Amino acid sequence: xxxxLEKVVETFYENLEKGKITGKKCTKCGAVxxxxxxxxxxxxxxxxxxxxxxxxxxxxxxxxxxxxxxxPEYKAMGKFAYGEVELEEGSRLNAVVRGINKKKRxxxxxxxxxxxxxxxxxxxxxxxxxxxxxxVEE
Amino acid sequence: xxxxKLHPYQRGVSIIGVGCTPxxxxxxxxxxxxxxxxxxFGYAALKAMEDAGVNPQDVDFYFHGEASPLNNSNYLTxxxxxxxxxxxxxxxxxxxxxxxxxxxxxxxxxxxAVASGKYDCVLSGCVEFGDSVAVPNHPxxxxxxxxxxxxxxxxxxxxxxxxxxxxxxxxxxxxxxAEWYKRxxxxxxxxxxxxxxxxxxNNRRNASVNPxxxxxxxxxxxxxxxxxxxxxxxxxxxxxxxxxxxxxxxxLELKCDGAAAVVVCATELVDKYMGNKSHKPIEVxxxxxxxxxxxxxxxxxxxxxxxVRQVYEITGVKPEEIDIxxxxxxxxxxxxxxxxxxxxxxFGEGWKYICExxxxxDGDKPINTNGGRTSxxxxxxxxxxxxxxxxxHQMRGEAGDGQVKRLPKTAMLRGYGGAxxxxxxxxxxxx
Lengths: 138, 431
Fold this sequence. Notes:
The structure holds two protein chains of two kinds. Chain A is mainly beta. Chain A has two domains: 8-52, no CATH class; 56-135, no CATH class. Chain A is built from two helices and eight strands. Chain A has helices spanning 8-17, 102-110, and strands at 22-26, 32-33, 48-52, 56-59, 80-87, 92-98, 116-125, 128-135. In chain A, the strands form two sheets. A five-stranded mixed β-barrel of chain A has the order 4-5-6-8-7. In chain A, strands 2-1-3 form a three-stranded antiparallel beta sheet. In chain B, α4 crosses α17 and α13 packs across α14. Chain B has helices at residues 37-52, 69-73, 78-81, 102-115, 147-154, 163-166, 168-171, 176-185, 189-208, 219-225, 231-235, 270-274, 299-315, 333-341, 350-355, 372-375, 383-396, and strands at 13-20, 61-65, 93-96, 121-129, 132-134, 142-144, 257-266, 282-291, 324-327, 410-417, 421-429. Chain B starts with 12 loop residues before the first strand and ends with a strand. Chain B has a domain at 13-150 and 254-274: Thiolase/Chalcone synthase (Peroxisomal Thiolase, Chain A, domain 1), CATH 3.40.47. Chain B has a nine-stranded mixed beta sheet with strand order 3-2-4-7-1-8-11-10-9, sandwiched between helices. A two-stranded antiparallel ribbon of chain B has the order 5-6. By secondary structure, chain B is of the alpha/beta class. Classes of the chains: A mainly beta, B alpha/beta. Chain A binds chain B through residues 9, 35, 41, 60-70, 74, 82-85, 92-96, 114, 125, 128, 130-132, and chain B through 2, 161-162, 165-169, 171-172, 174-176, 179-180, 183, 242-245, 247, 252, 294-299.
């Protein structure tokens, strides 16, 4: 496939406006890049196709926001944490996970429950939509 | 994660001279207020050349590093702005920035340039005004930059398309490594807190005997001044507040101003360049590099693992051969995490070495003997070469009151920064 100059970023955010969370899937090895980029970081192939993300994922680590790692605009998200998220499709990324406060983290850690299930959601920021994850209460 | 296989240098490269300014808050003192980029870089460059025994005309090329030249200096091509200051007018140079890792890539660039055979003798220097910004349209005046404004510019370290939008990558820099260490080694919250505090205490002890360090008052002295008999009670008190999930104020860099430089030459030409200098050259055995953008989970850990793997593979050096270790610790957790990944401290046991004071300059496993970023100071680009300056002085036995007990022969230095580059190298005193 020819390498094309494609507006991947704009398409990603336009898809969010349409309610779709999308990544790019490698046609050679099947790895999914999320967020989407030109080439596969698993095998190097640049023949990639758009794919909708299921949103099902696992949270592997939990870091709570603190004075250095919080911003006034984040308050609108309610209780949240940061952590390593693994998508069902295989990609791993650092992400925001809503529904976790210090008490909830303590419960999760004391139960030795990591990784816990989370689900992707589309979240409106100032002027654009982005992706966060929500803790799935099991 | 993708890996890189390194190949041997075309010829050996040795460090023959180092130079470093004191790390300073330049605008706070009459005698330093008004110093410019050319003056700081020029001082460090000439000190490195004097130390090497070379004349500026002997140097073929220079590399210039500054983390944030546009914001801090209103410079677009900062290597050119300083080029007339140290006797190398007309010689070529290049500027590079890898933010807080710049001073480590400064070594990578210089070594590659000589190892390739293109140049015989190269200068690599870095300068930063981390505590102030240039007053526009004035030839030398500067004004302080607040931490709040500084943090606004550090947002530019992160990818605009995705990372800033997704919010987590840039916020995890403060605590991700501590969370990872605590979880994978099974520490309690209290043990992790004590470990972070002891790193601050050890760094400050090291800085207290280093005349170039920006903060030399020990935490024991600070605790006493505030009425604490026990330094750990002070470290756990509101005088050292939690700024992160794990990180306390004492574990953050002291951003400041400074410059440092190194001169390297082909090992086969050491005698030609060093003349009657009596100190031994120090050979750069190898350099490993990796990078993990901030959306990558545990970016510091993963990139350090790869860079360390590369440098051990190409050099054949074993972890037990490392006598002294340096790590860019603008978030203090870095020096524990990287020392364990490098095998300098044993897996899962490094925190105990730190809490027992064994990693201070007078311990058996010294780390960051200059005081690290939290006490020596962090002039962002320049700090990496300041680490090398300290390592070289330790390896020569010229570190004064801060000299480690056993003369180090082999050192590892691990740079980190720029959301996030990693550059790790091993140096060894020539026989």
